[in-house]
Design brief:
Helices cover 43% and strands 19% of the residues. It is an alpha+beta fold. The chain folds into two domains: 168 residues, Jelly Rolls (Sandwich), CATH 2.60.120; 112 residues, Arc Repressor Mutant, subunit A (Orthogonal Bundle). 29% of the residues are buried.
Amino acid sequence: MGNLIIEIPPIGERDCYYIQERYKPCFNYPLHKHNVYEFNFVEHCKGARRIVGDSVEVLGEYDLAFMGCNLEHVWEQYECKPGIIHEITIMIPADFFSPNFLEKNCMKPVKDMFENAQVGIAFGMRAIMTVYDRINQIVSSEPSFGTVQTLLSIIYDLAASGDYHTLASSHYSHAEVPVTSRRIKKLKDYIDAHFNEEIRIEVLADMVGMTPNALSRFFKQRTNRSISNYINEVRLGHATNMLADSTMSIAEISYRCGFNTISNFNRIFKNVKEITPKEFRESYKKNIFLI
């Protein structure tokens, strides 16, 4: 991927959405981002690789992802055999839903999905099959009130399904993740500020008046991840930013992000990202320009 493209979406001020369908032999569009939301549906993509922020995933036969504004993403050929790839992209403006409308009780699943889209979302097969026919229907219809209704039903059913997982780390995309517990917020603020230092669980436990064992259970219950996993997530978020945007050596990045050895950094990075830091950096070599 040679370049990061800052794409100017073809959506006018009065447009509700923009949709494009493509049949192509391979993935060849470079790394890009834009200031609108995007649903991207692909079929016949087994073995391709989707990169969203610092998330790297190898795909099956179908893929449906939802990206928030200004989030870097690309689909790479990788191990996908050349053939006829079917891709449908739906772009919607950032103000498609007003903030007040999203605060309505019935819109909570949609609000949650749009918040999660800041780091990118990938949907499971159950959700994809639920909206498959409607995605193919809307692309073959002229824009109208009826197609907007269809798009709204697609958005709501995807959100209500809950059949999705987030992609990029919040520390890479700089997305704000809501925190409801004051103690969890205090811990996260400390970890975010001291990620490049040794962080001892005894110090964290003292901060919130708990024993280390009680803190470990409490953090896991509230965040669905262990403290050590969260610390590594923060460190990897900073490391992937440095790999993408700096010329520092991998060893220096490892040190600056709080990993005690480069071998430990390489091992954790490969376990989480499924590629090495070197491979990740090579995928993100870029020059920024406008088209």
